[in-house]
Every structure is written in structure tokens, then in C-alpha cells.
Design a protein that fits this description.
homotetramer
Chain lengths: ~290, ~290, ~290, ~290
């Protein structure tokens, strides 16, 4: 990862999906070629089961001769004609990420260090905790920390406060960095496709609480972690990234918890990075995660 | 793996378990030392959750000055005094393995090739299929093949025939090499700890049928395989070995099936090898799998 | 992998490379669109270091309305205009693969089993050994076996015989499945890009002879295997695929050799599969290995 | 990992090595049993190539009825009689670790976060940098930072200052957390077995400078990292831990550097943890790394 994030995220990325149709790649690539853009990276995926087509096109910014409004309007017209679902992402809009935490610090530290080191192309303007424990970590990285405690009774109220803070801070992405609360459908519906959670198990194994203890009892030989977009159904959102690590009979639950942290960290970081680089398209319960490009 | 299997399996292996108690390792190692045995490999595991102790002791055969009967009788007396559960395994007894198959050939081929190449320290005197499809493979390796078709109605009868064949052939271990039938509790109880199955998923995810199709639908980013001892409850026996391989959105179910074969093969082979080398102790729903030793 | 290889290999694949130039994807995809082809898979790679562009385009065969000669002639004209290096691959030409072996059987068995099971989209019309040891394996799979012993003095002569056999059998790809002879530059130059070797180490570590023994002496904690195209310089050809497996201090050289076999097998098979699916482009000392597509 | 580090490191660990000899395990385990110790973990490794035997014995502290001096004196007498090389490690001595750094921060952050979180059973009383860049990181974790710049001419002088600081701070272990200076034989000889370095490549591949650039040029498909004890010969010390991560043709050198950081971090942390838990014995150019125990 370069020292400056600008070289990691292409100047302009279009994410497109539609029903599969002949000539789509040709028509879209011609659209950009005619307007003087150079295609830096193009990756296409035609899903044979759903018969849908997914495209990621990264463009060189030198090609942008017209205004953004003109470009997106023109592409919108093409998209209407071809019945495409699409989004355009300009690299000079630095995405704003909020971190939600509880007491476990390892994912919080990991994301803050990566951000501090220029690995994550984003701003992190706020951290929200339902406990005060991690405020010192936020302070060490000079990120404002908001403590919003929650009980079953106060959850709607607390989520409204979170929602207000997110909106006030123009947040693009919410990362649940071991936030140990179940969000209501009301909240997750409002932030669909913009909340990433890390679950400390290889989903769909060990959904729900205390996965490492259950992994110990089941005697599995690998433990894992799963980063996914959050939907109303617990631990059932579209999976972005997973990984595992080998364990043995020698690893009691406390050992699994410790070993698992390293997987949680890296899986969450990879998922957040892919999202920030506009490499993910959600396809129902599945995700298309395009390559890093060159 | 040495060219001859004799050097892979130590001459004499004791597997021991008991409630944890002080001085156990000292007393057991002294027992063998006093009788002139050299300990080639000793591995001990004290489970902090169950408070049980597990030991694998591999001995040099040059030490065997008394008869086997005397040795096992003497150890039995010690074991009674210390309330140990134990078994002794002499390398010059070549274990006899039966393979049960249906139509998929990859695990069958894999085990036969390893056996042919001297990697698996065992004999394979028979293959049983509930379909005739794999008889040519058995023939190519000159292993007798028995076709025992089965329907829901004839299952008790067919399992009785299998059981008879296994007993007649003095089988020590039954390997379900993608045998696509659920065995009855009656059968599995009779062969407890002596049936190894390969499940084509990372258990406990995707228990039951069509795991690759369900993995596709869930959109997982890794697929796996699990080798386990078979108990009456489907896919819930003690896990011996697991592994995974990375897949992407590009992999439709047929691709997952193909990629998964390589994991199934190697996971099953590792489990069978560990069993044949007397490296596994079952501890309730879990297994202790000792190291390969030197 | 589907039962029939036809669904694994797209009907028509173009592999293209050139200096990076604006509009290339648009022009090429338009070329096919205008001729009524549907692009099943398109992947593009722009190398930022070499400033070269690489493309793989897989086409639906239903689009082929003109003759092959017309299509390739028309594309050739475009390619000349754009200064492209390219090749076209029609799936109904079943590629013909020759296996070269010495005494180790595991890679030979592995490829033959995959081929027998319909995983590898190719014919295997001949196996050549410089020792007679593996003739029985060839016989079991009913593939003609040619024993061509070699000494330092007879190498030019023996290679001429190999070359003659390959040509007579219209071989497209030569796979060195643990063939323990160094081929002369004369031979490798004639078959550039059409010989795949498996080296039993993670190159560039442990080039040359006895890599497992040297891995033991160096005390590495992982051992690996490398599949690469063969060039005149030993073990220095472009790498296609690599993988590793964890080992410990308990693994003496013989154990490393045994464990390593599983990595060698799967790494070689993946490389051969990628080649047969026309997913590889050589870029100097490096390879671009495109995705499996959907 | 337990909340308190004390439970991770057994109360008392003996590391023993000797020429292989009959009855060693029995005599040593009897020694402890007779003195009322309970053996919490015992692992033995008999190297068939060097014919040496290695033992790690972890003891319950409740057994310590005599003084440490008496215990170690008594064991010393046994060790002399059996010609053992050995060391004893008491958990209530908290080991003291110094970190040496240059400009790259990822390994420094990683170790500090783990230490802060109670994962690493040690104190970190000082950080030494040959550049001032990482002083703010040290400050954030309230660890004294010493900047000791170095040139070729001043190296002996600077190393003398480092040595003095290490001794003054009673340092047990020196960790080179991406310290980009080659230490002199004079220095490494004085700290043999007490300096751990992280090399950003899978040794023995890419020894020396700029390994990621050379990995790119060679076109490898995996990149790795290696933690090893430092000896006078550059990058040739005994390897403690290695790991790799998959990369593709899409990853230019900058991308390899970024991806590699995650492997470097975790490989170095695992090596430091194993050292602090007294799980490593050096055997010439190799290491025996015992299991985590239960």
C-alpha cells in the first residue's frame, strides 16, 4: 500500500450490475472510450446461476473532460436504456468511517493503526462505544469517542442517537469492530450495505453467541472469522471475507479466543479495505468481491 | 514417508487416558524404563476443561524382552491401580482397512494410490460399493469389490451383510470414502471408533446433504472438508481433521464440487494415516491428535 | 468440474497482450460484439511496472457465424493495426498432453486420475519414462508408455527421440511429472511455453537437487512446491503456481518428502489445468494467471 | 490468551537437551515426581538425524517445597550425571524485552498493542530507534524511546551504546521489529539466542535487501515472512516461525509491501510469544518449537 491513499483507489470507479445481456461490456467500454477515458481496470463476472452480470470499471482521471454531473447524467441515460443498477465513485471524495465498539480492543487498534499508517483510504471521524472502556484508545489516536450505553429498554433511543451522530458526521460506512450488541432491523435497514460486522467464527458455523466456546466443545481443528454486511437477520448478511487458522486439542477456549483475534483483525481489515476500494457488489445473499487490480 | 511402512509406525504404541493425577508420567515412563524399553516418542496432553490426561508413548521394539502377554498383563495391573483407560498397538500387526464407496471415485483412488505407494501402513483387503460403478477402479488395484445395493427397506439386511464381510475379513478400520448412505445406529454402535467418514464441508457448517450447493447459496469464501469418526448422530462424530480452500464468487456449485475434491482427498488421507499410526484418542465429542513424532 | 470438459473450457478464448494503450478494451470488445459474439468472461490486467496490457476474452460459441479462418483473419488485421500479440483457442480442439516421468509415481497417478475423471480437458496419448518403473501405472490407465533411458552421453540422441514422439503424437503440452533429468536448451527452446515442470520446493528457495534435505537442514517451518514453464536456465522459468504446507521440527527429510508429495500433486494439477483452460499469459519472467471465470 | 499473563506461562519450565540415551524421560520425570511436582506439560523430541533429545517440562508451582537454589542445584547434579544442557525458567520473573526499530511502524505497533492487551507475558521497558520517526508511537504507549543514529563509521560506538542500554535495563530479549541495520558479529555473539529478527521474505528465498521487489521480479505466487534468531551471518540464524500469503500478478511491489506487513506482524508476534513461553530450543541451525501445551 502506497504512503498516500490516492494511488490505491482509482480516480473513478463504476460498479454495475444487470441481467446478463449480449454486448454489455462492449457498449459500456465504448461509452467510456468515446468520452476519452482510459480503462485502468475492468473486471466482469457473469453468474451462471442467477444469470446476472457484474462489472467493475476503474478509470483514469485524466479522461474527465466534462463535469461529473454531465458524466453521470450521460451514464444514467445509458443505464436506463440497458436497465442497469449502478454507482459511481470519485476518489477525491474521502469516505468517512465510524467505528462501533464495546470492550474488546484488538480490532479497534488494528483499524486505527492501519488508518494512521495510510493503509485505509478513509477518514475516521468518530468512535462510538456502548461502554467507556476504549475511550483511552480513541484518545491515543485523537479520534472523538462517544459513549452511548444501552439496555434492552433503551435500545431504540440509543440507536436513534447513533443514527443522529452518523448523519451529523456524514458517515459513509459503519464498522462494527466487535460491537457486542444486536442492531434492530429498523437501524440495519436504514444503513443497508453500509454496515460491516466481524463475526468471530467461520459462518455459517457457530452463529450467535460464544462461538469459541462452542468451537472448543465441537472439537473443530480450525477456527475462523467472517466479515459480512449486516442485515436484520443475525449473522446472515452477505459474506465479504473469511479466513481460518489451525488449532489443536491443546487449545482451550481462552487459547482459541487469543488465537482467533489475529484472524478477526485481518479479515475485518480486508473487508473494510475492499469496501473502501469499491470492489464489492452485493448480489442477494452473496457478494462479488473484485480483484485488487494492478 | 519411508519406503517401508515399518519405520513410520513405531514398534509399540501405548495410548492412555485417565483423570489427571500427579506423577502419572513419571510412573508410566518408569514402568517402561525398568523393563528396558527406550521411549521413542512421548506426548502428553492435560485437558484443563475436562481435567483428563492423555498420553501417547511410542517404544523401541528392541526393549521387548518379555512376551507380549507378560508386558500387557503387567501394564494392565498398573492401569488398574491408576484407573487408566488404555490400548497397546504392536506394529507387526498390519491393520486391515475396508473402503466403502458409492459413485464418486476421487477419495477411493487417492487412498488406493497412497496404499500402493507404501504411504499407508495397512492392508486393504476389500472394497464395498452400494453401486457397481467403482468396481473397475478396485480391479485396477486388484482389490476384491463387493457390490451391496441398498434401499430404505433393505438397509438392515445390507448392513448385516457388510458387517459379516468386515468380520470375515478381520477388518480393523472402515473408511467411508464418499459412501453416500447413512448408517444405522445399530451398525455404528458396533464399530464405534473404527469408522472414519469424510464430510464434504467444514463441520459444523453444512451438515447433511448437498453442502456445496448450500455453500454457494450462502456465499462463503472458503470451502472445507471434515474427517470424523462416525457415531449414530449424522455428521456429529468426533472430528479428526479439517481443512479449507479459498473460493470466489466465480465458483458456481460445479466448480466448488471440483475444487472441494482436493480438500476431501487430503483431509481423509491425513485422518486415516493418523488413525493407523495410533495417534488419535477420542475424548467425548473431541479428539486428541498427537504429533507425528520424529 | 462438470462431467464433460466442454463446459469447463469456453468455446473460444482469445489471449492478447500489448503495450498499454487507450481504448484497447473498448476496441476489442466492440470487435466481438459487432460480429455477434457474447463475451462470457473478460479479464484485463494492466501491469504498472512493465506498462503492458493483458486480456483474456472468453466467447460464447453461438456467436460464430463466420468461418474460423474469417474470424482469425479479421482479428489478425485488428491486431496488426494495434500491435497486439495474440492467440485464439477453440474448445473443440482437444489438447494433447504428454507426461514425462522417472520413478516417482505420485504426480503421474494424480494427473491420470484427474484425466480419467474428466477433470482435465485434454487427451493423454503418451507417457515417456527414462526408467521403466512406471510402465505398470501407464498400463493400468491404458496409456502407451515409451521407455527412453538416458545417460549424459546419449542425452542429445534421447531428446531427439522424445521430440520425434511428441511431434508424431501432435502434442500441445509436455508435463514433467517429476522427470528427474535436466533438458538441454536445445530442447526447451523448441518447446518454449509448452513444458510445465513441478519443482519440489518453494522457488527461488532450494533450486536444484535434494530440496527437501536442504529444507530440513535449514530448518524451515513450511515446505512448498512450484509449477513453472521450463526455460534453459534450471528452475528459473516463469512461475505458474506455488503452495506450501506447514511442517515442524518433528519432520525428518523422509517425512518432508512424504508431506511434500501432496503439495506437488495439487500445485502441478492446478498449473496444468490453468494452461489447458487458456488462462495463462507469460510476461517475461512472470506469468499472468487469469481467474477461473464463472 | 488469559486476561492475566501469569496463567499463560507455566510456573516453572525446564528446557533440556542431550545426546539421546535410554531412560532419560523416566529419570527426569521421576526426579520431579519424587520432589512432589506435578508435570503440567511434557513434550519430548528425539531427532533421528542428530540423535539428540529435547525436552520441555512444565511444572505446577504448588510442588515447589524446597528453595529454588536447592531445586536447581539438585537438577544440576542430575544434569551433570546425564550430560544434559538445560535451563530453568520461573514464571514470576517477568522477562524484559527491548524493541529496536527504524522507520516502519507496523511491527512496533503490533507488539505494543499485544503487550498492552496482556497477550505478551513480558515488560517492554525501552525502544531504541536509529531514526527518530517512531518516537511518537513509543510515547503513545508510554515506553521510553532512545534515538541512536548510526553510520558505517559509528556502528561500533552505537552498538556499544545499545549494549549498555540493554544491560542497564536488564533486558532478556531483543526484538528487531524491522530494524534496518546489520548488527556486527561482535554484538550478535554477545546476545546469542536472545535476538529475534523478522525478515520480510520466506527464507532462504530473498535473503538480503529489497525482498518484495525481488519477489515481484521473480513472479512468485506467495510472499512470506520469517522470524529467526540472529547470528553473525545475515538472515541465516535458526528459523523460529514462517508464514506466507497468496498474491497474484495484480500485485505490484507496493502492493506486496502492504500485504506483506500482515504476515510480518503475525510471524514476529508468534515467534516472540514462543520465546517468552520458553517453548524454543535451538539445535544448531534449526529450532525445536514445542506446542502451546494446554
Amino acid at each position: 500500500m502506497p504512503a498516500s491513499s490516492s494511488s490505491a483507489v482509482p480516480a473513478l470507479v463504476f460498479l454495475v450490475q444487470s441481467a446478463d445481456q449480449p454486448g454489455l461490456v462492449a457498449r459500456i467500454s465504448s461509452f467510456f472510450h468515446e468520452r476519452g477515458f482510459n480503462i485502468v481496470h475492468l473486471e466482469q463476472h457473469a453468474d451462471p446461476v442467477s444469470s446476472r452480470l457484474f462489472l467493475r470499471i476503474a478509470l483514469d482521471q485524466r479522461g474527465l473532460r466534462s463535469s461529473r454531473a454531465e458524466l453521470t447524467e450521460a451514464f444514467g441515460a445509458l443505464a436506463d436504456a440497458l436497465d442497469l443498477t449502478w454507482s459511481a465513485h470519485f476518489a477525491d471524495h474521502t469516505q468517512r468511517v465510524a467505528l462501533l465498539v464495546t470492550k474488546a480492543s484488538h480490532c479497534l487498534y488494528d483499524l486505527l493503526v492501519r488508518w494512521k499508517e495510510g493503509e485505509l483510504p478513509c477518514d475516521i471521524p468518530l468512535i462510538i462505544g456502548n461502554h467507556p472502556d476504549l475511550e483511552p484508545v480513541a484518545n491515543a489516536f485523537r479520534v472523538p469517542f462517544h459513549c452511548l450505553p444501552v439496555t434492552k429498554a433503551t435500545k431504540p433511543q440509543q440507536e436513534a442517537e447513533i443514527d443522529a451522530l452518523l448523519r451529523k458526521n456524514h458517515i459513509d460506512l459503519v464498522v462494527l469492530a466487535r460491537y457486542m450488541q444486536i442492531l434492530t432491523a429498523d437501524f440495519t435497514d436504514r444503513w443497508t450495505g453500509r454496515i460491516i460486522n466481524i463475526h468471530h467464527a467461520f459462518l455459517p458455523a457457530f452463529q450467535g453467541a460464544r462461538p469459541y466456546h462452542r468451537a472448543y466443545e465441537r472439537g473443530v481443528k480450525l477456527i475462523g472469522a467472517t466479515a459480512h454486511y449486516v442485515i436484520a437477520a443475525l449473522d446472515e448478511g452477505p459474506i465479504i471475507e473469511q479466513d481460518v487458522v489451525r488449532v489443536t486439542h491443546e487449545d482451550a477456549p481462552q487459547s482459541l479466543i487469543r488465537i482467533g483475534r489475529d484472524v478477526e483483525r485481518v479479515v475485518l481489515a480486508r473487508a473494510v479495505q475492499a469496501h473502501l476500494e469499491h470492489r464489492i457488489v452485493v448480489d442477494g445473499h452473496r457478494t462479488v468481491v473484485f480483484g485488487r487490480g494492478s
